[in-house]
Amino acid sequence: MAEKFKHISESHLKGYIKNVLLTVGLPENDSDIVAGLMSDADMIGSDAHGVFRLPQYVKRLIAGGINKIPNIVIEKEKNSMAVINGDNGMGHLVMERAANIAVKKAKENGVAWVGANSSNHAGPASLYARIPLKNDMIGIYVAVGSSNHVPPWGGKDMLLSTNPIAITVPSNERPPIILDMATTVAAYGKVKEKLQRKEEMPVGWMIDKQGMPLTDPSKSNEGFLLPIGEAKGYGLALMFGILAGTLNGAAFGKAVVDFNADATSFTNTGHFIIAIDIAAFIDVSLFKNNIDEVWSQMKGSALLPGFDEIRLPGERSHKIYQDRKVNGVPIHSNLKNALDNISNELNIQKIF
């Protein structure tokens, strides 16, 4: 039996992605930024949002659905906020710019909120919340998902997406606490990953329009994703969509374009990033030591039967990152086939 996975180094992965992006027309610096963020996604275990998404991005870039040379500008601005127009550029470029603006403003004002419109899919939420984290800040990121797979609670019309949130909190000796979650039980990228790997979905991810469990990812268009906590998850998806979409003049509800199925339409994806300068509230060292104590208290909790460990948000991705730094990123054979198709189409070297 052929081996399902082959491991490659972070630098090799980034180099391949950058070469693809350069070949389809992204400028050198933009290609470097996007490739770095995409390989970061794989390094932290967000496998459905890293190189896995490259075929989709390439398709949209070639078809004109994404602007290869965007003019990303600030549309509106005050001391502690801004709204930026991404000019239909790669979402990674838009939100990397937004996060850095938020950090700069937070250093000056304590807290900053930067929204974005005219953007695109940008990978996993935590990528951008980690930018304030590197500056001893708390980061909060929310986006309108890039396709609607969720109805309002009790309905059938697909009016909502997975609308993810990430919150990052720095610590001292412990790994940072990093929450990165969709408002659905599973992100749609995981459904796509199951489809590529020819694996069934677990019961509880999706149901069909008769309310029965749906486990065949090839039939995902016959059902919908389930929100976390039933009506509560629907409420979160709704409010996040308003804050990341409607407030920024970006798409929400019926206006959301399914970028999985449409390679040419303007998606007008909306996001926002908040940076909170810890030093404006409390001594940074004291705060980080206190977060270490939070770690100890959570990890020290008495366990229910059937559990062998308490895990904190971000602990798994931290361990994956450490492992992949040493052993490389696993590339599934079916993903390699999809990437090889890109390489053949562009007449460039294959990933391996």
TrEMBL record:
The protein, known as: Ldh family oxidoreductase
One Pfam family here: Ldh_2
Recorded superkingdom: Bacteria
InterPro entries cross-referenced by the UniProt entry: Mal/L-sulf/L-lact_DH-like_ah, Mal/L-sulf/L-lact_DH-like_NADP, Mal/L-sulfo/L-lacto_DH-like_sf, Malate/L-lactate_DH-like
One GO molecular-function entry: oxidoreductase activity
Keywords, ordered alphabetically: Oxidoreductase
PANTHER family, A to Z: MALATE DEHYDROGENASE, OXIDOREDUCTASE-RELATED
Family indicated by similarity: Belongs to the LDH2/MDH2 oxidoreductase family.
